[in-house]
Amino acid sequence: MTERRKPFHETVAERLIEQLKAGTAPWQRPWVPGEPGSMLPVNPTTGKRYKGINAIHLMSQGRTDPRWMTYKQAAAAGAQVRKGEHGTAVQYWKFSEEQALRDEHGRPVLDGEGRPAQVTVVLERPRVFFATVFNAEQIDGLVPLERQPPAWDALERAEHILQASGAVIRHGEIDQAFYRLATDSIHLPDKGQFETASNYYATALHELGHWTGHATRLDRDLAHPRGSEGYAREELRAEIASMILGDELGIGHDPGQHVAYVASWIKALQADPLEVFRAAAEAEKIKDYVMAFEQRQVQEHGPQQEPDQAPLLPPPPTVAELSAAQYAAMKAADAAFGAALVRAYGETAAGDRRYAPSHDDPDVQAAADAFKSAADAWREAVADARHIVAGRDSVQQAIPTEEVSMQTHTDDATDPREHAARVEAWTLAHLMRDTLPHALASARLEQIGRARALLDEMQPLNPQNAFWTRHVLPDDIDALDDRIQAVIAPLEQLREEAKVAQARQAGDRAAFEAAAREAFDIALPHDWNGQVQVQASAELDFEGATHVVAATDLGVAPQFWSVYVQRDDGRYAFVQDFRHAQQAEHLAYRLAVVAANSTESAQAREAILARAHEDRVRRDPASTEADIAAASEARKTAEMNRTLADTEAQTHGAEAAAQQDSPSAQPAEAARTYLHVPYTEKDAAKALGARWDRKEQAWYVPPGVDSAPFAAWMQGGARDPAPAPSREDPGARRRVYLAVPYGERGAAKAAGAAWDAAAKSWYAGPKADMERLQRWLPDKMPAEQAPAMNPRDEFAEALRSIGAIVTGEHPIMDGNKHRIAVEGDRKGEQAGFYVVHLDGHPAGYIKNNRTGVEMTWKAKGYVLDPQEKARLAAAAASTLAARADAQARQHEASAQRVCRQMAELVSVTEPTPYLRDKGIRVHAGVFTDRDGKTTCIPAFDVDGKQWTMQYIQEDGTKRFAKDSRKEGCFHVVGGMDALARAPALVISEGYATAATNAEVIGFATVAAFDAGNLAAVALALHEKFPEKPVLILGDDDRQLELTQGVNAGRVKAQEAAKAVGGTALFPIFAPGENAYPAELAPITPPIYRAHLRAIKALEDAQQDSEGAKLTDQQVAALKGALLSDAQLEALARMKSHTDFNDLATRSVLGREGVERQVKAEAVRVIRKIEAQRERPPEQEKEHNSHAPLPPKRVARIA
């Protein structure tokens, strides 16, 4: 049998490991100062130096002559490789190639001189090539190596680099040389302590290599303690870079200070032979970054500059600065175009005429062409500028501390936008380093979810994506896409594991057991105390039964490894057996992470993780004594911090209890200030902040709200108690604590409630929506036992608390799923969902799909007797059955009526007003009335039956046929036969968007009519055409995110894509078109609701001439709640830039922008499916790497 040939990286790594053990690796050999370029390998034919791993590999051959060349190159130079000499392999990668340019018929295209034209093609899969080279010592006939004296002073050159870098360098503070990440500063002994000037500059440049790893430069992972594996990896990069720089400058290289890392380097290469490849590549980046300072002019300040001084060098130009001239030209052309439109059409019609495809007026057309050319020039300048900036730092704002970077909430004063930018940059940096799953290995659910969401935001991979306007898009997009796809599965696994921790922390037994089964495919006892044990096990046959015991007790080699967890009573429960120790240890570590993340104390979490890390290090046979000592010390420190934190918390709790028990600490209950509010003025009072007391049937002023605006309603009967004396600072606000049942915590949190860990209670947070939190105020929970509410009334109140509009027969308490309208729904929409049953103890589940808020509800004590429960269930069942039958008859009658009306319609031959306004062509299958005013779009199900019709009036008003079925119905632009021939299912919301997309991509597309119908249409078509890829082109309703709290278009499109395994794509507009201006005051759903209430109150007061008038103070307060004109204008602009038709007709990007975004993504999706069909089926992989052995035990002894 032929022995397997070792891969190149394994061969290189094995040789380097042996040399590291002997102390002869290239970067371990000291070089004295001398001639630059005398040690690093070079090809004398090309004059280029070998780089990266090729340089390391060639240097490891032990040759003294730096010249290396191929056999052919030696022959071309008149030399000859000696017989019997063996060459050395080097590798290089090819990322693009020249190919003959061909026309649409496949024929070669000739250039101006009649020769075949060439085009550079980026290879989808870069190719690796190997070459064999020989050292000059192996070749006869080569001229002797001539060493030229340097044309510069090496020390002056090194000094120039240090000064031009602008690094903060401090001397003499300590007798050590190091780089400190926290202060971004280099620390060196005094220059006089170095033996030679060359030693000083070699040391300084070594530390400058570490300095380049800061997040604002090359952004390497530097956050590792001295002596750790991560620290050793960074030292390897800096040491190789020092070797290269020392040869480049001729100042020598002294590796004597880094012998302590040899064991860690050997361990790293044994675990991952590719580590030295990465280290060599990053060392080349360090060298290039440092040598680039040679080209900079040094200002008066030297490297001793302190952090609070002005920077040595001006900041590099941004994309905006590099493209400023083109932007100014585009704005000037835009202004000229607008003036020409006003002159030709008047101010009223100028806005609409701007989007016309052409203009009869020659001056207007010339201005339009000039504006388009200027816009194109600006876009090209932006693209060029991004390439320039890409050559600088790839990530500017990443911070290396993982736990801080990925926090989804922060209590400090950091700008949320800055924090979000840091999280994005941190995620992108780890993605590019292939370390994202490792960096999130111990993260919480919200952190993993945020990283996963950012991966979705990175798509599509083009410069128009908002994400890639904030970050540099790498040149190799396919490689980036592969990286993203590669981390999705590991992140999903981490997310499932994090759900186990979340359920354990919440104390939800059922959810905990289900999550553990889903994440690990194991059964975890609900009373697990967080302890995990791995036992090397063996089987023992005794008295006819097979027992499992510790292998050490029998003195035999382990047969398998068992994982146990400890219960609260101290007993151990068996979890799973594994064939390999690494599998058992991996599960034990992941369970330790679950235990850590399910604790509320940060110190306890760190202590659990530190102990788990120490256990892994101790079990690793490759761990050194230094590794074990470092892990043990870290664990001791973490446990000490935990002990101190627990002591402090107990002391704080005792003091709080003492204060609470003190009579003086009990606040007197304040009487409410009730108001006399006429019914016609209730909206005005509510807009000012008044609340309704259901028991007293009166409005009142809630605590903490200024009562001055309510003066008109307080006369005569308001009961305003005298303020009690207070010892608190008048400016301080006491927390308003809430009585939130566990199942309702999600809804309370969404309304602004926050958790007080010390008090173990929810309270109204700084951004609380008190209107939403009324349900959980303590006064809603009377101390004395009151008659329980009827379950239906209680559940209706729960529905209203999450924004549901309870009308008619809702809630229906029959145990089935029901839809319900919520605040923010358009007519006919039902974005709410609930299911509630009356069996035993009434309970249910509610979700507002518009806001994402959900609630698990349980009745507070009302239990129905069997007769009442049976009566209600029977009534509900009868109601539902009757309604379903009536609706089916209604739908069928409406369908027949619509089909009869078709006879009165005519096919559209000339664009209707709607088609003209939307800038789309006439497509078959659309009808109109005799006057050509109304646009009629028939809707069919997947079997081709017409159920309804969408009617669009001249002014754009839309409606469907009365009492007709819309769910699951759609319209195909191009017809069903064309859809059957289409290579993909491309589904949009509205007809105009679908028609625009069909005109761009060249095949049939589907209109689902609205976001709520996307999933139903996608599922139906995917079932009919399962082989076609699905692309959902959704609407990006960012204005709804501000006013309603959820981007319905984006959410529904993503849900539809996920349901069929498809891809969701959203339009990317030019800067400022679909984004809320940062300089305006923010808009939130509570602010927007207050705006609407204020409008209604002011309108009602103006219309009701006989009612009580609002005071000037009340009017001023209501007007203060209104949004500004600038805010309303921003919302209107965002609303007019949501879909791909808006991109084509209202954006400066125009139809060309749609082509770039939609066509490219459609082609990518289609090619991906075709590639998957052509790929041979892989062998079925094991479903779970933790798959257990077949059960063999009769008894277990842990």
Q: What class would the helix/strand composition place it in?
A: alpha+beta
Instruction: Specify Rg, calculated over alpha carbons.
Output: 36 Å
Kindly state the number of beta strands.
Answer: 35
Output the number of helix runs. 38
State the helical fraction: 40-55%
Mean pLDDT: 78
Instruction: For the largest sheet, list the strands in their spatial order.
Output: 14-13-11-12-35
Largest sheet: 5 strands, mixed
3D shape: globular
**Unreliable residue stretches:** 297-316, 390-414, 660-669, 716-733, 782-787, 1178-1198
Strand content: 5-15%
Question: What is the end-to-end distance?
Answer: 45 Å
Describe the 3D structure.
Residues 615-669, 1169-1198 are annotated as: Disordered. This is DUF1738 domain-containing protein. With 1198 residues, the protein is α+β, with helices and mostly antiparallel strands. Among the domains are: 37-148, no CATH class; 150-312, no CATH class; 319-390, no CATH class; 736-777, no CATH class. It is 43% helix and 14% strand. The chain is built from 38 helices and 35 strands. The strands form ten sheets. A five-stranded mixed beta sheet has the order 14-13-11-12-35. Strands 25-26-27-28-29 form a five-stranded antiparallel beta sheet. Strands 30-32-31-33-34 form a five-stranded mixed beta sheet, sandwiched between helices. α10 (324-353) packs antiparallel against α11 (362-390). The protein is globular. Residues 297-316, 390-414, 660-669, 716-733, 782-787 and 1178-1198 have low confidence and may be disordered.
